[in-house]
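Bump. Still looking for IS3 family transposase structure tokens.
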Amino acid sequence: MAKYTLQTKLSAVEDYCSGQSGLKVVANRHGVDVSSLRQWVASYRARGADGLHEKARSSYSVEFKLAVLQRMQDDELSYRQVAAVFDIRRFDIVGHWKRQYDNGGVEALSWGAAGRKRTMTKQLNQESKAHPRDDEKRSAARKAQVVLELRQEYPLADLLQIAGLARSTFYYQQKALQMADKYASLKDRIRFVFDQHKGRYGYRRVTAVIRQEGRRINHKTVQRLMGELQLKSCVRVKKYRAYRGQIGHVAPNVLERNFAAQRPNEKWVTDVTEFNVSGQKLYLSPIMDLYNGEIVAYETARRPLFNMVGSMLRKAFDRLGADERPILHSDQGWQYRMPDYRRHLENRKVTQSMSRKGNCLDNAAMESFFGTLKAEFYHVNEFSSIDELRAGVDDYIRYYNNDRIKLKLGGRSPVEYRIQFDQA
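Sorry for the wait, here they are.
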């Protein structure tokens, strides 16, 4: 593999982290290997620029190996991630340590060079006895597998001599073994994206993320591989209510289920939902911009008083430009029929719109957000207090606005989509 200067690594990593291009595009632009760039990015995120310095070959103690494996298990990290955290030169050596530990416990992690050679010799002898000479191809493949596992720590020439393999035979078998699972690296990336978003992404969003990195992949392939990996996203039960009530007397239904907006701050929707923690309740009142699905303002409270809605409105209005006068749609909840609510809207020249009585489909966009919030956050976690729940809601809304991609926004998050409009 080619050697790269620190400046080359840093330039490529900073280019990728700017978010303007995918992994493959950046790698081609800087003339570097895609796999190397992926490792540099992980190291940079874990250790900063220090993580990009060339690392000398190192010998690791049993205690260090155990610490690495423990951290990987506790934080559910991949080999690449935990290698970046501990500044390990080759991430695949962590997989070797894990196999050692799984097969032989702590003692296996302490094997030195001599002990390893004796062990390898014993393994190869067992292979030879187990398979007759008329099955030499299978035996060669198994020996090549053992050599592949050990070559990260020992010279290849010594291993081939012990195994009795010609170099050409080894490379032939190595290529055959790598072709056995051509989707190995893709599976690793799928698992990383799935874990990064805490199981909230299904195969469509996972596909979109991988495509943004410059990798051409069919969504059906991702769907099949996620099935093999037993990765299933959070899926909520969708409820349908077809009752059509009367038009509200406070305000007309100006929105009329036309949820499409041509620019930010053109159409807003709002509603209130509640959460329960050990009999105690927390209420959430958000406003969503229909242009990009962004939560432009929200407020939480222990009691569903009008102060909560009033505070939310003040936060939302602070985001408006002097000439922006959106439609604000809601259901017929008591908060939205109060004179104070209508007065807030009139003072800011915001047009009030209300759903028909008993028809949640008139405010389907807000209902959809509440369903997503509860499926991806509330129902999959346990909370010991209302304060813990409130902090989690704050964190989820930040994630929803800034990190969670939407396919209808071209694989961008709501904030990324709005910024693109502002820059146009």
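Confidence is low (pLDDT under 50) at residues 237-248.

Edit: fixed formatting.
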